[in-house]
Write the structure tokens for this entry.
Amino acid sequence: MSPSQSVAELGEHALIARLQARVAAPPPWIVAGIGDDAAIVSPPRGEVIALTTDSLVEDVHFRRAWTPLDAVGHKALAVNLSDLAAMGAAPHAALLSLALPPDLLLADFDALVEGFLTLAGATGMPLVGGNITRSPGPLVIDVTAVGSARARRVLRRSAGRANDDLYVTGTLGAAATGLAALRAGLSRPGLDPDLAACVARYERPDPRLRAGVTAARSRSVNAAIDLSDGLADAVRQMALASGTGAVVDATSVPVHPGTRAWAERTGADPLSLALSGGEDYELLFAVSRRRRRGFLAAAQRWTGLPVTRVGRLTSESDLWLDGPRGREPLGAGFVHF
Amino acid sequence: MSPSQSVAELGEHALIARLQARVAAPPPWIVAGIGDDAAIVSPPRGEVIALTTDSLVEDVHFRRAWTPLDAVGHKALAVNLSDLAAMGAAPHAALLSLALPPDLLLADFDALVEGFLTLAGATGMPLVGGNITRSPGPLVIDVTAVGSARARRVLRRSAGRANDDLYVTGTLGAAATGLAALRAGLSRPGLDPDLAACVARYERPDPRLRAGVTAARSRSVNAAIDLSDGLADAVRQMALASGTGAVVDATSVPVHPGTRAWAERTGADPLSLALSGGEDYELLFAVSRRRRRGFLAAAQRWTGLPVTRVGRLTSESDLWLDGPRGREPLGAGFVHF
């Protein structure tokens, strides 16, 4: 087999065998992995199962010309891990379903699988099954992630309460800035380090598993959600589900330095990128004031990951942004469809 | 909203809300269904989890011109349920991931969802989550099915032993015959009943959940696999995984009456359709002789579903077909890719 062969030349069975050969030995909770009609996994005793699925579609979520396929494989798993993190669930098993254009090169297939399996290995997320089929159109990568958690520790987006403080992990706007830089055709080698970090965040989001799982175990968090469509959208979704309103403090929103650099260069509004830019995959937590100390103690263990108070939930149902120019309605998020 | 609107006019959030409104109240083991970052399900105490995923891609697995979209929705779930049945796992929860062409009509979206949810309701398979995105090409339906079973009752394809008898449920060749009739442009109203039954089998396969689950509980079965790519392929996969060979007795293969009628009409070989025709989604069981009585007692409870002995596993690794003209190598199955 040569990397310049197409996937159609190999066919489904050979591709599955190739993938299977690359998969690491499964951990003990995988009773049966790839190779039967279904995988069999054994959840930790007394824990519930978290289930989520998300897909990446070529020319909707990525372009092969802009994004290397190992990054696409990484991201397809990362966005699902981010959903588990937002529930406070630990990684348990993953399924990978691929619809491949027949002219896709074997080298591209290998890169996609490598990106997926490298992140899977790093996060303790064994690949236990999947499906490979032909696509007459775009490359489609559909991932299902299975996590586990103690039932009473699960973090729901709907359990926020009025007067809870809102905390966000990391810095925001990076992924949207990275996408804008790629769209503007900026060449990677010449990028300044802050912008290069934005491109890396767009291509290879880092799911906040440790933050989500330890926050859940600390019992200090009322509600959580991940930032797939921006901070404004996440606050809106959490408030809507919790039956509260919210106020975001514009001056405290942690804007990524690359986003500031990009805004200076292009005249864009850095706060808009930080509030409405999609795909940062940070976590938003609602924390009641009397649990603040416990939450911040848990957050101290998220080495290198800052956490910032950005606002609070309110008893009125309105959504506001408090900025230097006063109070204004909180804008909308990023729309994929 | 009007059924002649396109899905792009509604957008992702409205489509999810529409789907959510149609979903029945979840059973007690669903801790959290649609609407959070991940669903939370609680598996039966002491049981393991079965996981499988399979997708239907427009113009690869179905054509919108030939197959009504409610049948596509039914089939997308049915093929996954068939995988659970083959493991002896009971339905527990399903995830549905859709990539929709923007010009898809809302009426078509509704039909697809209706077909899926009707089968989900009939089989006790709650829809707990999923994903909707745009497709710049074909309609893609990706389903993940979660089942549950006692660890010691799970049916593996690899646990067959030499001298086990091979039993198959139902009658074979129907789905391939139905597809051939659709390809030949036969109009539905004029079809004879046996051929119409073949079209129905192709469009709406009936996953053999009861057979799979009761066979597993009866402790009479060594190995099982479903017939997604034909009997010959299923026998080959089971023998390969079990480290055995197999002999299929051609004269005992239960050919669907519609397949016989089609063969007479077109000159096709009915046995080839029954052996190599894909998508019948019957089950193949390997049963040791001393467990035969227990197996047949369990099978008596599969009301209306015949079970037929079609051959046996052998200690040599070859695969044979014994027919009226003597012994010949067992042919290959149906290839989707």
About this structure: The CA atoms of residues 239 and 245 of chain B lie 5 Å apart.
